[in-house]
Structures are given as structure tokens and as C-alpha cells.
Amino acid sequence: MNGYSRWPVFLFSSAVFAGAFLLFLVQPMVAKRILPWFGGGPGVWMVCLMFYQTTLFAGYLYAHGLVRFLKPRFQLATHACVLLLALLLMPVLPSDVWRPDPSSDPSLGIVVLLLFNVFAPFFALAATGPLLQAWFAQGYPGRSPYALYAVSNLGSFVALFLFPAVMEPFFSLDAGAGVWSSGFWAAAVLILASGFWALKVESASSGSSMEGELEVRPKPGAIGVLLWILLSACAVILLMAITNLLCLDVASIPFLWVLPLGLYLLSFILCFGSEAAYRRSIWLTLALVSLFCQYTLPTLVPDSSGVAEMIRSIFLQIPLLGLILFSLCMLLHGELYRLRPAASSLTSFYLAVSGGGALGGIFVGAVAVRIFNDYHEVTTGYFLALLLLLFLFMREPGSWISLAGPRWRVVVMAVGVILLCAYSLKVSTREPPGLLHKERSFFGVVRVADWDSKDDRDDRRVIRHGTTIHGVQLLSEDFRKVPTSYYGVVTGVGMVMGQRSPDVPFRMGVLGLGAGTMAAYGRESDTFRFYEIDPVVIEMSSAGGFFTYLQESAAEIEIVPGDARLSLQRELELSGSQDFDLLVVDAFSSDSIPMHLLTQEAMELYAQHIKPRGLLAFHVSNRFFDLEPIVYRLARETGLATLSIKNARAGLRRGSASWWVFLSPSNMRINSLRAFVESRKRMMGVRSEGKLVVRDSPESFYSDSPLWTDDYSSLLAILFRFR
């Protein structure tokens, strides 16, 4: 096999590229389909990644078994059957029959759903990469098959960014699934053609095998195999932990899913595609500098300064966390490539790498949420990476800190790493003063803390979900029942509550409980029904918790656990409309926007649950997204009248700066609200100038905004866009 034509190499490369492309294109596609069914938070993507990493290991194990125990022709026949089975189980997207019960365990539900809908095609494609490389190595023993691994990661990389850039904006999910299924057929043809070529080459050169390969490397011992596993596991821990962090601070959207995953794959491409790309000193310096910026810079400036706010802003955190992930993955994957075995042990190597990835995925996706009360897997990933790298550098004879060299260098470096890890742990576990309770669930980390003020009347208790305040209650006996923050009397929703007739019972639904602040408006004849997906938040706000709004409200309080939209749909099917006078949708303030609550289907569901003269209230205050045009576009498609109310900060007891959009089937109801707010503005006089804005924007304002549906939505198009 010393002479060969170029087209078989192109055939193998095309098959490997196609398999990897489809493998990583289906990941965000399926995750986006099921995201609305499980609350729309980043935990959904974490469980999906855990499942994908585990299935990848299963595929690599299958490929390793085929190569080790079966002759090539039986390998091809077996894999052809697996591909055929996957084709028969199309389509890959789960149907609506898989929608879960609103109160069911989300992690288990996601795993079961993926197992029945995605496992077969994902398993078949996962096994394709190592199989094709093994077949290539058998046919071309003089060439390293590891270049095909770089091709595989290139295909994955292209697919990841194609989804948010092309598939998501221009294709519905169902249309994208159809394209994917067609691509699977084409990939199957390429894979089988490559297998047949490998059989033909084997028959023509019966004496050749991988034993005569050009690259001769020592067989790995137990420590070598353990390092393959640990290096791979550490990289996946970093990938998933940093992805989770980004999605919690912005939104659980495909763009922020694929950005870290793309950087992770790019490090694979560079390290396995060219040895020149990996330079220890460069990537180690970048990693240490970026870690210093993340942990040390915020402590060098006052918390209240504008510089501190800029350092902590997502505009800086996205590139900074991306640089940390990429530099550490370059180090981990660069060392992994240095430890690669000869081609004869290729499938064993990939099996260990995928096994490490599965362990890392299980740790972040299933273990960390149960053993940590915060997102400590980020710091854990940093520790493990630095300790692994220190060990590798020390055991290499030519290294600057080799054990064979001067011992003082080893001691200095070891002490430096330990001090860095200790300092990082101290910074990452630092809590604000007044912390009363912290608890983590599938949906995030909830903190309750007391904040002291110079004025005792403003001492308050705050519930924070991630980086966003989700409710505030004043501790003073005189003001404990006063609605605060986004729900104060001068906010849009406060205006609506002030417009109520005093003797008419009022029925209200609220999507998002928080501290239960809206209950402060309750009267004896009223009924307030709260929908809350996070059981931790319910526990914090109910009797025996840390807030008293619900217990002290005069209204009848009802709490519905589980995803709000699924609960509303089930209620509509079982008992009909809830006939709300007001339905408040408050799930869009900063952290992790659940897009399934802001689609045409969701809007139609809300409209069925309000009275003919009822109101829908959307809280659209947000640091990163301009959601007002999206709501207006949905209102136009649903035939609802609209009004936007925006107020400036008026003090904690009157209301924080907030932005509300109100919708109603009745134009008269919207006109009545407009007149009421305008009368309040006149009463405020000069003080209202610029502090209270009421508007009903023209169609030109939102005509170019996309219409979000369950099958189509894209936050990337409106990221950081404000009018």
C-alpha cells in the first residue's frame, strides 16, 4: 500500500466529516425541541451533554469491540445493520407525545426521552469515526490515521456554528430535522463505500497490517491509560461547567451552547491536526493570565465602582471565560495528543478518551447538582486541569520542572499551583454578608440574604436566582407588606392593581413566584394563583420559609408547581379556562430566558386563560435582549391590543426601574389602562417627565421582528439589540 490514489483518502475524509457533522448538528436541534418541555433552563442542555458524552462512549466501545473481535468483512456487515436500524427509527426529533408531566423529575425525563428517540442514530454516528480510522489504518499502514480525527472535529465544529447561524434563523425545527435525515442517508452511503474500499484494499494486500505502521510509539501502561481518561474528563468538565455559567447569566440558547463546545472542538482540531499548534509556554501563559483576570481583578476594585460592574458584565465574561476554556483545552488536548499510542491501539485510545468524556459529563450533569450547593464544578475543573498539567510537566525529562532537574523548581511550581488553587477556592466560595440560605436544584442556585441599610426602614430580605434578584421584602414591621422592586405601585403592574374596582373580586395568575411579592396586593375576595417550576423557590417563599408575602396576604393563595406553560395547558384541557382578570408573565428578567413562554402557541394559550376584558402583563426588563418588539409581533398575530409602560427608579418602596407590556383582547381595556396611567402622570406633574413612559408603538417598530413559534425562535438575532 505504498502507492495509492487520492480519491480513497478523500472518500474516508468525506465520510468522517459527514458523520461528525451530523452527530453535532443533531445535538442542539434535539435540545432545542425539548427545551420548552423542561422549563427552558440551562440544566436541560447539561443533561443532554451528559447523555451525548455517555452515548459517544457506548459507540466507541462498540467500535473497539468490532475491530478487536471481528474480521473486517463482519465489521462492515455489522455496522451496516446498525446504520439500517438507525434509518428505520427516523425521524430523530421527539414528538409531542413525549411532553412530560409538569411536576416530574426533569433529569430522568430527559434521559428517557433521548434514549428512545436519539440513541440509535447517535450511537451509529458515534461509532463511525473510530471505525473509519481503524479501517483507514489497516489499508494505509504508512499513514497516521489521527489526521482523520482532526477532520472529524472539523466536521463537528462546522455543524455547531451552522446551527445558530443558518439552521435556527432560516429553518423550522421540523424542516431542519428533514434535512438532517436526508444527510444521514448520504452519510450512510459514504460510510459503507469507505468500508467496501477497505475490504478491497485488504484483499489486494493480504500481507499488510497496522503492525508495519510508520509511527512507532511505546504501548501505554496503566498510568498512560489513566491519563487519557483524566485529561479527557477534565476538558469535558470545563466545557460543561463554563457553558452552564454562561447560560445562567444570559440565556439557555443554542448560540451559548455551541460557542464553548466549538472552542472545545477547535482545540481538538488544532492539537490533532498539527503538532506546531501546541506550544506549552504560550497556552499556559494565556490560561494563567485569564484565570488571574477572572479571580483577582474583581477583588482589586470596589464592588460599587463602574469598573467592577464592567469586569463582571457579560460583555467581558463571555470572551474571558471563552479564553480560559480554550487555553486550558489546548493544554489538555495537546498533552493528550503527545500521549497518543500507535495506530494499532487507536480504538483503545478513543475508547479511553470517550470514557473520560462520559465520566466528566456524568459528574457535571448528574453528580455536581447533588453534592454542591453552588456551581463549584467550574473551580473543580480548574483545579483538576492545573494539577494534571503539573504532574505531566514534572514527569517529562526535558521539562523545566522535571523531577530529574533541580528540586527547587518543582517545589516552587507545586507551591504556586497549590496557592493559586487555594486562592481561587476562597474567591469562588466567597458569599455576600447577610447570607441566610443557599440551595441548588436542577433549575439553578437560590440565595436568600438580608441587606442592611443606613435607614432601618429600608432593611430588606432578598431572594436571588443566579445573578438576578427575584424578589425583595422590607423587614420593617411598618413596610413588610409593601410591594417592592419591579412590582411597586409606580410600576406598570402596580398601576394595573391600582385601577381595580374596590368591591369586585379579582382573579390573577402569575408565572414566576420569586418572593411572592404580588400577593401583597391581595384582598379578601381575591384569588392569586402562582405557577413556579423550581421547588426550592416555593420552599423559600411559603410558610416556614424566609418571606411572608404569601402567608400575610388577604387573598386566597394557590401555588401550582411545575412548568407554567405545561400546567396551563393541562388545566385548559381538564377544566377549561382559569378566567384570569390579569395573567402576569414574569420570567424574562435577565437570567436564562425560557423562550417557550414567548411563542405564538404560548400567547394563544395565555389568551384562552384570561377574561374577554382581561389583561396579559409581560415583564420585559432585561440587560441583554430587547423583547418588546417580540411581544408586539406576537400580539399582532394573536389579535391582541397592546400598551407599553416603562418607569424609572422611584425607590424601593415605590418601585424599581421596570418595563412592562400589556395585552388584551379588548381595545377598550387597553384604552382604559392608558387613560388611568396618563391621569397618574398628570397628578405627578413635573416629576413624571421621563420617569413614566406610556406608548403603543407603531407597526413599523416591530414589523421586522421575527415571529417566534415553538418550531422557530432565535435569541441570537436580538442579542444586545436595544432601541
Describe the structure.
This protein has three domains: 201 residues, Up-down Bundle (Growth Hormone, Chain: A), CATH 1.20.1250; 209 residues; 233 residues, 3-Layer(aba) Sandwich (Rossmann fold), CATH 3.40.50.150. It is built from 24 helices and twelve strands. Strands 7-6-5-8-9-11-10-12 form an eight-stranded mixed beta sheet, sandwiched between helices. A four-stranded antiparallel beta sheet has the order 1-2-3-4, covered by helices on one side. Helix 1 packs antiparallel against helix 5. The longest helix has 32 residues. The relative contact order is 0.09. About 1% of the residues have low confidence.
Structural class: alpha/beta
Helical amount among residues, as a percent range? 55-70%
User: What is the total domain count?
Assistant: 3
Main β-sheet, spatial strand arrangement: 7-6-5-8-9-11-10-12
- Please state roughly what percent of the residues sit in beta strands, choosing from under 5%, 5-15%, 15-25%, 25-35%, 35-45% or over 45%: 5-15%
The average pLDDT value, as a whole number, equals 81
Judging from the principal axes of the Cα atoms, what is the shape?
A: globular
The major beta sheet can be summarized as: 8 strands, mixed
Q: From the coordinates shown, what is the CATH architecture of the largest domain?
A: 3-Layer(aba) Sandwich
Do you know the CATH topology of the largest domain? Rossmann fold
Terminal CA distance reads: 64 Å
Mind telling me the C-alpha Rg?
29 Å
| Oligomeric state, counting identical vs distinct chains | single chain
Number of distinct helices:
24
**Overall number of strands:** 12
Low-confidence stretches: 207-214
CATH superfamily of the largest domain: Vaccinia Virus protein VP39
